[in-house]
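Here is a typical protein record:
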Amino acid sequence: MLCLAFLGANEAHAGMIVSDQDRALAIRAYGNRLSLQIGCSEKIEGCSWTFRGGQLIDDASGLAIRPAQVGGQGAALVLGRCEGQDASCRWVYSGGQFRNAADRSLSIGVQGGARRGSELILRNDCRPGLPDCSWVIR
């Protein structure tokens, strides 16, 4: 397991992104949709990610995690292209959470609790230790 607190913005690490609450749940991409799923491995398409330059990039498609539209509380997160220095496509990892570089009050979280099928959204109520917003790359 890797502690990302020591990674600089330009360093890269590849692996699965799993829920800190239940490490059997991993972020998986299906098309451009993102949800928590069980049974992921780095060899399964949509389950392996690279954190590089502040972007969370799906190893299979090369697309990054970003808000589906102008972000705010509850905005869906999807895979998409990121142009130039678009801060909404960039994340800062701190305290087990991925905070949006455009608005650090917003973090990657899940809707309805960390369970199989939960979709990824932007949340403004994340705090250290909140399991719906805590992640580990392994």
DSSP finds no helices and 13 strands in the chain. Residues 127 and 133 are 8 Å apart (CA to CA).
